Amino acid sequence: MQQQSLFSKGKLILVDDIDALSGTKDRGGLGAIEELITKPKHLTFLTCIDPWEDKFSKLRKKCILIEFQSLKRDSIINHLKKICEEEKVNYTEKDLQEIAKLSKGDLRAAINDLQAFSITKTISTEDKSERDKEEDLIFCLRKILKSKKWNETINIFDKTNEDLNECMLWLDENLPKEYSSEDLKKAYEKLSRADVFQGRIRRWQYWRYLVYINILITSGIAISKKETNPETPEYTRTSRILKLWMAKVRNAKKKSISEKIATVTHTSKHRALKDTYPYLRKILQNPEVIKELELDEEEIEWLRK
């Protein structure tokens, strides 16, 4: 954003899917974007699904919001006609209208359908099923945890808008309700391997590993069981996020006190937290120590619990 283009003719910068960026409190992420676009040397475009999220509040004030509407059916038909002419595919006006109708304003979906319907160089909309409708996450989970056929489950999460992280958390929460004993062990092994690949994606940005994650958490878990549970338990949202948040709240006071100990004792925050704090908790209730560390009322209250 701050450098000139190769031939000094200017350039356009696109930052796609900023929904995936971290909040302003972390290093980089949205905080860096907000700072860089304050004095941009080049025109910068940012795309996101929901610009009204709280984390975009500061960024929205510095940007011009432009909403992209679904494409009109005529525009999609004209584009499909051009593709058919270039690829020498036989078609009828009725075929293209049907494909455009099914796409619901999504040009990429229309092109994918066109390719599927024109494998034989002739588009046929006869005996075709409707585009896969978005399925509920509960349905996807039940399909995986009840079915033993890999081909019925391998692409099941394509039917929901939830990302794979959320899907893995749902599986982690509900696996014990359907599997037991050796089956549960095998299923969690598949889930843990998927988590390993997810970590590699975060470190190396090698997104091809998503293929392995998808197979492991769908077909891998589905074929891990010998028999299907005849009962129909109620699936619930994962409680792990809530537990992590509660743990963070519990540890926030401890960390803030440790930071003040580190300042007074001239040690690192880590050492104050691990080496000093556990042994001095009782001593920290001394009024003189509290005064020297400048502990606030909430921290004092927390120490007295």
Structural class: mainly alpha
Quote the distance from N terminus to C terminus: 51 Å
Into which percent range does the helicity of residues fall? 55-70%
* Oligomeric category: single chain
Series of H and E elements = EHEHHHHHHHHHHHHH
Number of helical elements? 14
Q: How many E strands? A: 2
* Mean pLDDT across residues: 80
Characterize the overall form.
Answer: flat
The radius of gyration computed from the alpha-carbon positions, rounded to a whole number of angstroms, is 27 Å
Count of structural domains: 4
Strand order in space, largest sheet? 1-2
Describe the main β-sheet briefly. Answer: 2 strands, parallel
Low-confidence stretches: 125-135
User: How much strand?
Assistant: under 5%
Please provide a written account of the structure.
Helix 6 crosses helix 8. This protein has four domains: 12-61, no CATH class; 73-117; 137-222; 247-303, no CATH class. The protein is 55% helix and 3% strand. The chain has 14 helices and two strands; from the N terminus they run βαβααααααααααααα. The longest helix has 26 residues, at 240-265. The radius of gyration is 27 Å and the shape is flat. The protein has helices at 29-36, 57-61, 73-87, 93-103, 107-117, 137-146, 150-153, 164-178, 181-204, 210-222, 240-265, 269-280, 287-293, 297-303, and strands spanning 12-15, 43-46. The two termini are 51 Å apart. Strands 1-2 form a two-stranded parallel sheet. The chain has 305 residues and is an all-alpha fold.
